[in-house]
Amino acid sequence: MQIDIITVVPDLLQSPFQHSIMKRAADKGLLQVNVINLRNYGLGNYKQVDDYAFGGEAGMVMMIEPIAACINDLKAQRNYDEVIFLTPDGNTFNQKMANQLSLKENLIVLCGHYKGIDERLRQHFVTMEISIGDYVLSGGELAAAVVVDAIGRLIPGVLNDESSALMDSFQDDLLSHPVYTRPADYNGWKVPAELLSGNPKIIQQWKEEQSLKRTEERRPDLLQ
Ligand code: 6GU
Questions:
Q1: How far is the CA of 147 from the centre of ligand 1 (A)?
Q2: What is the per-residue DSSP string for 137-171?
Q3: Which domains does the chain have, with CATH numbers?
Q4: Mutate to test the pocket of ligand 1, among 92, 131, 147 (most ligand atoms within 8 A of CB)
Q5: Which atom of ligand 1 is nearest to the CA of 135?
Q6: Digits of tens for pLDDT over the chain (224 positions)?
């Protein structure tokens, strides 16, 4: 998969994909993330990318021309499955969306800034609008890191143990069960006996019970 991220703050996206699972995805050739500096498509000597909002509102709006030129450049090189705009008024991101997007070939991710982007870009270029939750970030970059991470780890072949993504919290609308490692007894704080039983049936049943219990306690909405 190739993901092209369009941003006015490319520095913010230098590190997030260079570690851990995202690094492994890149090393295996399964995910290539390109960060594109929108400023390169800015207008005039000042490489302008935003302008005052019509209607006399406070705050700047990202202009059509630089973003259109950038997207058209990319589209001339390959076909894209989606042009995703990251915006607090988008659809709230969830695991189901991550699963679906992990099966795509090429994605454009456009990070919003300032007051937003000219509405005509949303009408004519953007195919999908995503928010990562009900709070406001100063820009779409951190949201892009979240969305790309969630998608990238689901790309077939990225995780070593293919089943481990299937066991994630949310994957089956249940939260994960608690986990433990050595020592089995820390100053009297003991690991549940079921996990030490060596009996796969008992262990599995404990995990399922704990998943359900945790979901009932913390996220009953997931069980509806
Ligand atoms: Cl995608 N962008 C911004 N600026 N704020 C957000 C967001 C996105 N998702 C939640 N808050």
A1: 11
A2: -SSSHHHHHHHHHHHHTTSTTSSSSHHHHHTSTTT
A3: 2-152 (3.40.1280.10), 167-223 (1.10.1270.20)
A4: 131
A5: 11
A6: 999 999 999 999 999 999 999 999 999 999 999 999 999 999 999 999 999 999 998 999 999 999 999 999 999 999 999 999 999 999 999 999 999 999 999 999 999 987 899 999 999 999 999 999 999 999 999 999 999 999 999 999 999 875 577 667 777 889 999 999 999 999 999 999 999 999 999 999 999 999 999 999 999 999 98
